[in-house]
Design goal:
The chain is about 30% helix and about 25% strand. By secondary structure, the protein is of the alpha+beta class. The longest helix has 13 residues, at about 20-35. A hairpin with a 6-residue loop joins strand 4 and strand 5 (about 95). It folds into 2 domains: about 1-105, no CATH class; about 115-150, no CATH class. The chain has helices at about 20-35, 45, 55-60, 70-80, 120-130, and strands spanning about 1-10, 15-20, 50-55, 80-85, 95, 110, 115-120.
Length: about 150
């Protein structure tokens, strides 16, 4: 069986999909439970390593309230579907861990698996992952403007 995680990223108004096996799902659940201080600066792929941005069609393939009964039964045989909402600590959820609340970090930043990430480090990760650096319009890995963290 495969596990489909549909991820709603509020800050970026983006949708993501991650299709994983049981071992990867258990690892994601374990990591989710270690998070503290989740903010809009945390890249979705830091939480869900196999996630990719998806289209409306991708999303509806797995989660559509208007889905024909035959397709719904097919999905239920093929996969278990979970939903995650990613934003701030008090406004994020993952229905594979119902009721789990993400606590605030004890410092200014984010923590996962016991590793602390400062906001500037998270910003650099996000910037490097973008298609173009906003300063020099080059892909993140080829930034030439000297933005700290762009080539790390």
């Amino acid at each position: 069986m495969k596990y489909v995680i549909l991820i709603d990223e509020e800050y970026g108004y983006r949708s993501w999909i991650s299709i994983v096996g049981l071992e990867e799902l258990e690892e994601i659940k374990r990591r989710w439970a270690t998070m503290k201080g989740l903010s809009c600066l945390v890249p979705v792929t830091m939480i869900f390593p196999h996630a990719r941005q998806c289209t409306v069609e991708d999303w509806l393939e797995w989660s559509d309230t208007e889905m024909p009964q035959e397709r719904r039964e097919e999905v239920e045989r093929e996969a278990m579907v979970f939903h995650a909402h990613v934003h701030e600590s008090d406004d994020s959820s993952f229905d594979a861990l119902p009721g789990h609340k993400i606590p605030k970090a004890l410092f200014r930043g984010f923590e996962i698996d016991g590793k602390e990430w400062r906001d500037d480090e998270l910003y650099a990760l996000n910037l490097a992952a973008t298609e173009e650096c906003p300063e020099c319009n080059q892909p993140g890995d080829n930034c030439v403007c000297g933005e700290e963290g762009m080539t790390n």
